[in-house]
Design goal:
alpha/beta, Rossmann fold, 9-stranded mixed β-sheet, globular, HAD_sf, Phosphatase, HAD-like_sf
Length: about 230
């Protein structure tokens, strides 16, 4: 399996067996938005986007964790430094646990999310792509960095300062999330079972999905003092 991801250009900064070992302790996945789900392009009247392939990946990741860990849900969140209405709509649709918008220090959001869900930062895996994500990468237990060929020195910095464990072969906006979720599912050793169950839409998948749909997404942002506070969203 490792070779398949290396053939894509994926880089195991931490040995694959060590990543698989760390996954056993992971209880949550947190995603940056711009540069991870989306290309990160901005402009007047321009909204960020996501792909259904990445969306399916996050759902299959959650189901994979649910099967591997005796029906224990995987906590999911988006932490973004910008205001991204599409990220909020996506998280609501997919019943993520939380969205943190316009966050200055993402490590503070990680700490808040952990407190909210009674977990520790080392039990969180994060997926990210840029400088402002390094504070959360520094404290998370497992780190997946989305490759950007235009930033080779940034990738070097992440490697040298032990801020990433895996670097995707896929670039921003090119299904990097799906690469990460497929990798993790493979390391769970339940990939074929998960896909077969979803195809059949069997009782196991229906039980997982019913549980997933009960989750109400909560929203947070920074106030003027850069403290994390609830954000009202319809």
């Amino acid at each position: 399996m490792k070779n398949k991801f290396e053939d894509l250009g994926g880089e195991f900064v931490l040995p694959a067996e060590k990543i698989a070992e760390k996954l056993n302790n992971i209880k949550a996945f947190v995603f940056d938005w711009d540069g991870v789900f989306s290309l990160g392009a901005k402009g007047v009247g321009v909204s960020s986007s996501f792909t259904e392939a990445d969306s399916m990946g996050t759902n299959m990741l959650r189901y994979s964790h649910w099967r591997k860990h005796e029906h224990t849900p995987l906590a999911m969140a988006i932490i973004t430094g910008a205001s991204n209405p599409t990220a909020i709509q996506f998280a609501q649709r997919e019943h993520f646990y939380a969205v943190y918008s316009s966050i200055h220090d993402k490590s503070k959001a990680i700490e808040h999310f952990c407190l909210l869900n009674h977990i520790a930062p080392e039990q969180v895996a994060c997926c990210f792509d840029d400088v402002n994500d390094f504070p959360m990468a520094r404290i998370c237990g497992l780190r997946f960095m989305v490759r950007r060929a235009a930033s080779p020195l940034l990738l070097d910095f992440a490697r040298e300062h032990q801020l990433c464990d895996y670097i995707t072969g896929s670039q921003s906006g090119q299904f990097a999330v799906r690469e990460i979720t497929d990798l993790v599912m493979g390391m769970h050793n339940v990939y074929k079972d998960v896909i077969s169950s979803r195809i059949a839409y069997d009782e196991d998948y229906q039980a997982y999905f019913k549980n997933r749909q009960t989750r109400e997404t909560v929203f947070f942002t920074n106030d003027e003092q850069r403290e994390i506070v609830p954000m009202t969203y319809p």
